[in-house]
Amino acid sequence: MKRPLPKADTNPRAVRQRIEAMEKVLEGLFVIPGTKRQVGLDAILSLIPTVGSVSAAALGSYIMWEARNLKLSKLQFARMGGNVGIDMLLGAIPFIGVIPDFFFRSNSRNLRIIRKHLDKHHPETGIVEAQATTIEPSGRAPL
Fold it and tell me: Residue 36: is its pLDDT beyond 90?
C-alpha cells in the first residue's frame, strides 16, 4: 500500500526558510579558526575531483528548484543558473578548485537574488529584527 509523498509547502515564507537553510549548509557550516571565513558543504565537496563539483552543483540547483515556487523572472533564473554553472566549472579543477569556492559563493549570490525578489513581491516573508531595550529600576525604558 503506497502512500503519496507529502507536497512541499509553496508558501513564500516556507520557501524562504528552506532556501536560507540550504544556503547555510552549502556556504556556512563552520568558521575556519583564526579567520572569519565560513566554509560549507560546497567547498568540502570540491575536494573530491569532478564528482564533488557535480554534487555541489546539484545541491545548488535545489535552491533554484525551490525558487520556482516564487515566480522569479527568466532573467533571474538565468543569473542563478549562471552562478551555479560558474561554481561547477571552477570547482571541477582538481584540488585547486576548492580555492574559488572560498571567494565565489554561488549559493549566497542566488540567495541574494531570491531575497531581493521576496522583499519586493512578498515583503511579509522578511525577518523583523528586534532591538533590545533596557529597563531602568524605575520600570521605565530610557529615552
Answer: no
Q: Does the pTM of the predicted model rise above 0.85?
A: no
Q: Where are the domains of the chain?
A: 12-124
- Reported residue count of the chain is 143
Q: Is 80 exposed, middle or buried (0-12, 13-18, 19+ CB in 10 A)?
A: buried
Indicate if the alpha-carbon torsion angle 56, 58, 62, 64 is positive or negative. positive
CB 99 within 8 Å of CB 110: no
3-state DSSP of the chain: CCCCCCCCCCCHHHHHHHHHHHHHHHHCCEECCCCCCEECHHHHHCCCCCHHHHHHHHHHHHHHHHHHHHCCCHHHHHHHHHHHHHHHHHHCCCCCCHHHHHHCCHHHHHHHHHHHHHHHHCHHHCCCCCCCCCCCCCCCCCC
Q: What is the mean pLDDT of the chain?
A: 85
Query: What gap in Å lies between CA 17 and CA 2, rounded to an integer?
Result: 29
Q: How far is CA 84 from the centre of its chain?
A: 12
